Amino acid sequence: MDEQIREIIYSEAYETYYNGLNERLQEKYDYVEHIIKTQRIVNSKFIKKIEGSDFYEARISVGSNEYRTVVFAVDAGNFVECSQVLFLNSFLKKDKKQYKKEVRFAEKLIENYLED
Q1: Which among 89, 39, 30 has a CA at the least distance from the CA of 62?
Q2: Is residue 86, in this structure, part of any structural domain at all?
Q3: What is the pLDDT of residues 55-79, one digit of tens each?
Q4: Which of 22, 50, 67, 110 has its CA 20 to 30 A from that of 77?
Q5: CB neighbours (10 Å) of residue 113?
Q6: Which ranges form a coiled coil (predicted)?
């Protein structure tokens, strides 16, 4: 079994989204989560910094559909060094404008997380 490098914390918004996915999509998400948990350096095919923000995106591809999960490195300034990540919200990627909306939503979720 692979050694766990990172713990993933799930927001309520993410859990609601994930639970609404079909089994095939959940398996894809689980695969990417496993990579994030067990690999110190994760290929940009699976995790990438969102420009102009403190967030990263977990990337899931299924056919021609691109799914994204907004991720926050909880205990470090960057993803590689962190041991805890927070999965905030997920969406089916449609266009670049959608990122701004999703990042704003993620910022609200972070505020709620930090208050708790």
Answers
A1: 30
A2: yes
A3: 999 999 998 999 999 999 999 989 9
A4: 67
A5: 15
A6: 89-116
